[in-house]
Amino acid sequence: MTTLRKASSNAARRSEASRQAILTAAFDLVNEVGYAKLSIEGIAARAGVGKQTIYRWWPSKGMVLFDAFLMLGEGSDGEAVLPDTGDLEADLKAVLRATVAELNDPRYDEPMRALNTEIMHDPALAAAYAERLDGPMKELKRQRLRDAQRAGQLADDLDLDVAVEMLWGPLLNRWLQRGGPLTSEYADAVVETALNGLRPRR
Amino acid sequence: MTTLRKASSNAARRSEASRQAILTAAFDLVNEVGYAKLSIEGIAARAGVGKQTIYRWWPSKGMVLFDAFLMLGEGSDGEAVLPDTGDLEADLKAVLRATVAELNDPRYDEPMRALNTEIMHDPALAAAYAERLDGPMKELKRQRLRDAQRAGQLADDLDLDVAVEMLWGPLLNRWLQRGGPLTSEYADAVVETALNGLRPRR
């Protein structure tokens, strides 16, 4: 029984090592060759596994890439929260500036564009993304806004989903569509405009 | 000379007819087969032209599709403006609801996702899109906001570029990422939240 258990545990370790090698290979490779040329064959060769190993676990290159992003998140602790210094405007600016830096990071640019391409064309992947990656992130954002709302810093009747889209949406769009420079100044302007609204404050 | 001129004019007409046949074929075909399977060969076959004719005029299938979108716009008159009834909130809701209807139109869904995919991965196409399609649209939007600003309905120091992104960005994002239902109610909520801002109005 011990031998059996050891064999099974060794197999699990080998599986986990293969999984990590595949996900790392997918992430690296999409950066090097671009998403259009990313293939299961290429990922398999880079990871040193047979392509059947990949097909056994993932239905498409989009899902491999999606899991590669999930793996990136596994390193950070699960208790992540957005900063709360009591100064909502400053905290939001810090977080949106960090988002800008991430979107501008050349290591993530091509993989994130690839993931967004797949989401755009594959409703099943979009649902997985909404549930497992974007959903938890949005809940963190809503939580910070909810605390501010309780402290009277945000309107009582504010729809927090709309508020989250209004803060992060303009950054994501500008990045996706390359519609203009994605800078810290832009992040600051978005925060100020969203908080104050377009109408004059008297 | 008359004969020469007639021949040249006939050639121009034939070119224009081919151009329109190619653009229509691209638009129809991307709807039927999806963007991944759209090919220059397929467009050529559907349009009844040789593929060299397409390659002579366009460097990629993305640029063909982009011109197909430009052609759609050619039908509308060049004097388009956003509605101005004096009620900014009502006007913006009408326009954003129309945007929602367009994004939800099954005829445009796949071609627009395809165009956005290309924009995401092709900086040259993104620049052409920003200059020739998105730029003029954004100027119309800014113009309506500028008029409201002059009438004292919007903050004096409002950055109109940020305001435009804050109104239309959440719709585009929700559509691109399939992040939730894209409805008239959502359009209304975006307009109200953007105008009032996240902070309480006292």
UniProtKB/TrEMBL annotation, chains A, B:
Q: Give a yes or no for keyword Transcription regulation in this entry.
A: yes
Residues of the DNA-binding region: 39-58
Give the record's keywords alphabetically: DNA-binding, Transcription, Transcription regulation
* Annotated Pfam families: TetR_C_11, TetR_N
- Segments forming domain HTH tetR-type: 16-76
Q: In terms of domain of life, where is this protein from?
A: Bacteria
Please name the SUPFAM superfamilies in this protein's record: Homeodomain-like, Tetracyclin repressor-like, C-terminal domain
Q: Which InterPro entries does the record cross-reference, listed alphabetically?
A: Homeodomain-like_sf (IPR009057), HTH-type_TetR-like_transc_reg (IPR050109), HTH_TetR (IPR001647), Tet_transcr_reg_TetR-rel_C_sf (IPR036271), TetR_C (IPR011075)
Q: Does the keyword Transport apply?
A: no
Protein name, as recorded = AcrR family transcriptional regulator
